[in-house]
Structures are given as structure tokens and as C-alpha cells.
């Protein structure tokens, strides 16, 4: 009786071993994920104050995510430096934003325009006293 494997039996044998290895790897991966989670919890609990901080941070992250979603729905976004008008903000909100900016810079904008007008009209001033008066007006 011949107990040697032929080529087809060898291929089948190798495939069966590969399938067993793949199954074992899936089980190992799942166990590793579970072990990582358990280990993290245990280490957090053993590290002074870490469990409470982690719990607080997780809760705050959830609250932050919810607040960000609400801000985005209103036309704002949370940027690196704080709250900003969203790129896709509604036109009415963008218009209100721009009008409010212009209201706050109106005096300075008028001053810049007045100086620009004086520059355009500089050649119409013929005397030193007139020139000094114009410069002092904007100093």
C-alpha cells in the first residue's frame, strides 16, 4: 500500500493548512483586538487619574462633535482658531456677516478713501501751507 501523497493530494493538503491558518489568524486578530481593549482599560485604571480623564475626554469629545454638527447646520464651522463662517454658509448669513464687517470698518474705510482722494488731487495743491494742512488733516 502506497502511503505517499500524490501531487493533487499535496495541493489539497497545503490548501487545508492555509485555510486552517487563515481561520486561526482571524481568531487571533479578534482576540488581539479584545485584549488591547481590556489591557487599555486595566492600564487606565492603574494609572493615577487616567480613567477619570479618559471618561471626561470621551464625554467632551461626544459633546464637541454634537455641537460642531449643530454649528455646521447653522452655517458655521469650528476651525483651528475658533468658530468661523462656513465656506458653504447660506447667502443670507454670508451677507449679514459682510454687512457687519463693513459697519465695523466704515470709519477707517472712509479715512482711507479720503486720503486716496487727496493723493489723486495732490497736483491741485499749489502752496506749502495747503500741502501741510492736508497732511496734518490725515496725521
So what's the oligomer here? single chain
Strand/helix succession: HHEEHH
| Helical run tally | 4
**What is the typical, i.e. mean, pLDDT?**
93
Strand content: 5-15%
Shape, principal axes of CA atoms: elongated
Widest beta sheet: strand line-up: 1-2
Largest sheet: 2 strands, antiparallel
Amount of helix? over 70%
Sequence stretches where pLDDT stays below 50 over 5 or more residues: none
Structure summary, number of beta strands:
2
Structural class: mainly alpha
- Tell me the distance between the termini: 113 Å
Rounded Rg: 37 Å
Main attributes of the structure:
mainly alpha; 4 helices; 2 strands
Walk me through this protein's architecture:
There is one protein chain. With 139 residues, this protein is mostly helical. Among the domains are: 1-46; 90-139, no CATH class. Helix content is 76%, strand content 6%. The chain is built from four helices and two strands. Strands 1-2 form a two-stranded antiparallel ribbon. The longest helix has 40 residues, at 7-46. The relative contact order is 0.04. The model has no long low-confidence stretch (mean pLDDT 93).
